[in-house]
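Lab notebook, bench 4. The sequencing result for the construct came back, and we need a structural model before the next group meeting so we can plan mutations. Quick request posted to the team channel:

Model the 3D structure of this chain.
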Amino acid sequence: MEAVIKTDKLTKRFGDFIATNNITFEVYAGEIFGFLGANGAGKTTAMRMLTGLSTPSSGSATVAGFDVYRETERIKKNIGYMSQKFSLYEDLTVMENIRFFGGIYGLSDKAIKEKSDMLVEQLGLASEKKKLVGALPLGWKQKLSFSVAVLHDPKIVFLDEPTGGVDPLTRRQFWDLIYAATSRGVTVFVTTHYMDEAEYCNRISIMVDGSIKALDTPYNLKREFGVGSMDEVFYKLAREARRSAD
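Done. Here's the predicted structure in token form:
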């Protein structure tokens, strides 16, 4: 299997505080890789290093074959990114946002028009395409934001807490969009603190206090820990970490 993300002892320090501590893992082409953990576990810090937004303190990593220290601009051209805060322009219409980001991604005018028309139809937003994005419900904003993040057919898309604050039905619909992207060959790296979403991933890692404490398929982790849900896996790891700290 081709590894499109590789890290080796990747670490980020802020003064005396270690946000991510010697994390080592690989993500394979076409898979959904879940990067799980509680709020403050170091997930977003790790993602910022992998997307070229933050320089590591030590360790090494490549994304889409490019080095996170020396080739951050080439990384950015080969990935999509959706932050945990809504990342489109609320004072532009649906179509204006799509066209704007299509231009940033370097798509031709013809490609932008074709993808814009296709996208609003797929999302059921044809009747809303001239509406300001700020007027859309949060769930529609999130789905539009994801669709724009993969507009240019990137090799990898990074999703940082993409379903935060939306209802369970919308969360399920959002994951349908993720499955559709992977069927086109896009690799998905997703952070979340919703443990039930781990079941949707091919493999997951679980971060506790800046370190990766487990990495495998959801099925194998539940079997290893002798539990029936990913919530229980996480709670066991968290208890072990607290006992170690004491």
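The first helix runs from residue 43 to 50.
Will bring this to the meeting.
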